[in-house]
Amino acid sequence: MPQRAIEKRPKQDRYRGTAHQRGYTHAWQRAARAFLDEHPTCVRCQAQGLVTPATVVDHRIPHRGDQRLFWDVTNWDPLCKPCHDRKTASGQ
Ligand SMILES: [Zn+2]
User: Fold this and answer.
1) Ligand 1 centroid vs 52 CA: distance in angstroms?
2) CA of 68 to the centre of ligand 1 (A)
3) Plot region of 16 (φ>0 → left; ψ -120 to 50 → alpha; else → beta)
4) Do 72 and 23 meet the contact criterion of CB atoms below 8 Å apart?
């Protein structure tokens, strides 16, 4: 029996450099899309009485490469792109 177990695992051991290396992998994209399916409205806009489709999953607490925080759904916020950009720019 041929023993060829070639496992393709994403490299997540380092988190400087590209977004992919910080954990934004295929698995993340899939999880984020499923999350947005369940939470289709931007929470920041919603707080202002606006209904805007969420397109970005934001980490409420910056994960800084922390995988536990990264994958903690309670730390995820559905945001629209403008709100996400605003948050990123202002650091709030
Ligand atoms: Zn918004």
Assistant:
1) 6
2) 26
3) beta
4) no
Distance, CA 25 to ligand 1 centroid (Å)? 24
E strand or H helix at 31? helix 26-38
- Domain locations in the chain as residue ranges: 26-90
- pLDDT of amino acid 19: 80
Task: Answer whether 43's CB lies under 8 Å from 78's CB.
Answer: yes
pLDDT digits (tens, 9 = 90+) for 63-91: 998 999 999 999 999 999 999 999 888 76
Distance 88 CA to ligand 1 centre (A): 13
73: which 2 tokens?
């759904």
